[in-house]
Amino acid sequence: MKEGRERKREEKERKKERKKERKKERKSKIGSATWVTRFRPIRAGLLPILHPSVDAARAARSRKGCPGLGSAGAEAPPSTLPSLPSPLHPPLPIPGCLAHLHAPLSLSLSLPLLAKMATEGLQEKESLAVLKTEAESLKGKLEEERAKLHDVELHQVAERVEALGPFVMKTRRTLKGHGNKVLCMDWCKDKRRAVSSSQDGKVIVWDAFTTNKEHAVTMPCTWVMACAYAPSGCAIACGGLDNKCSVYPLTFEKNENMAAKKKSVAMHTNYLSACSFTNSDMQILTASGDGTCALWDVESGQLLQSFHGHGADVLCLDLAPSETGNTFVSGGCDKKAMIWDMRTGQCIQSFETHESDINGVRYYPSGDAFASGSDDATCRLYDLRADREVAIYSKESIIFGASSVDFSLSGRLLFAGYNDYTINVWDVLKGSRVAILFGHENRVSTLRVSPDGTAFCSGSWDHTLRVWA
């Protein structure tokens, strides 16, 4: 019995000693303050969240009269300025008497950094503003110099040129097979076959003489907005909302599986709006809604050159007609038509006279000029040698945008498809309208003259293509 009582007493004494040790540990913790590096946003600014022991430390100092708090031992009012931990002095436990010195120290280290960052930001903004004003002034001077050279209009020079005789063209073939809007078409070099793409996701190769379908490809996406025939006639390229340009080789084998032979060449970050083979089957140019154009190697799928400069979606492009030509023209939603050097990737000329999106561009047969069609209901002709616009083709009665343009083989006529279901034929030299062609029952979306110049084909939102001659 006595041994059991002694054991109980010893246990009670041990418990008392443990309690005393815990109290001592708590008191020692109160003598130090720990800063927490998190910040809580409030309206007056960002105040540091302190460890709970800081309040107890302040109270202890105020009772003892710690030096540095004033003669009365009163605590200084807390600052509303943010106290950021310095990267050179990380937050550490601070003795109670020196805890109040941590805030001024961190402020003295962080405020110069904040001031430096603010001044650097202001300097960058000022430099950008200066560069912008300089660019605008240079652009104004350039326009003034161009205006000095703009002493005569094209139609004034062509006054002595004989007017064109009666113009007669009508629909010779109607190609039916698409289940939705026709968006793009292109001719084969053999002057007989054509390829078209549609919103229904189908790409069809036609015999324009017999109106027969020779090939049909179903794309994995709808809105196939671009298609092109290879110069050899042995392949086609197409793309749209899948952001890719796919190349399909053409053969005349029975039950051929074209989808299995597909080769994905180009990959953009937005929809593919236009594509065109260069002078060989080995390279292809693409334009995209991501605001860029690109040159790709067909065999490897490697990006050879990218062209950055448009400020919005690029909607159309056309390659210079000469066999050794290394330039192409592009137009887009930024109202600009730009000439690019494929070797360097640089823009060498830029024209900004349209008042709305440019939907179609086409080089003049000689390669010295190009035409553009826009949503501002006008078509315009630009001379690359004069570096300016030389003609505008429009009428007050035309209020709908032009979607596609192309020249006749001689360059005397300009064909333009419009959103009012018509095709207008313009005299390039005199600037007058020669004829209006009716036939489509919805807007004309694409138009191309055949390689031999004897006919042209138009595609429409009425699901059909028409061959005119």
TrEMBL record:
One Pfam family recorded for the sequence: WD40_Gbeta
PROSITE patterns named in the record: WD_REPEATS_1, WD_REPEATS_2, WD_REPEATS_REGION
Position of the signal peptide: none
Biased composition (Basic and acidic residues): 1-14
Protein's UniProt name: G protein subunit beta 5
Spans annotated as Disordered: 1-32, 61-82
Superkingdom field: Eukaryota
WD repeat boundaries on the chain: 175-216, 265-306, 307-350, 351-392, 404-436, 437-469
Alphabetical UniProt keywords: Coiled coil, Repeat, Transducer, WD repeat
CDD domains for this protein: WD40
Keyword Transmembrane: no
Bias type Basic residues, positions: 15-29
Biological source species: Pseudonaja textilis
Record carries keyword Repeat: yes
Family of the protein in this entry: Belongs to the WD repeat G protein beta family.
InterPro entries (UniProt xref): G-protein_beta_1-5, WD40/YVTN_repeat-like_dom_sf, WD40_G-protein_beta-like, WD40_PAC1, WD40_repeat_CS, WD40_repeat_dom_sf, WD40_rpt
Regions annotated as coiled coil: 128-155
GO biological process: signal transduction
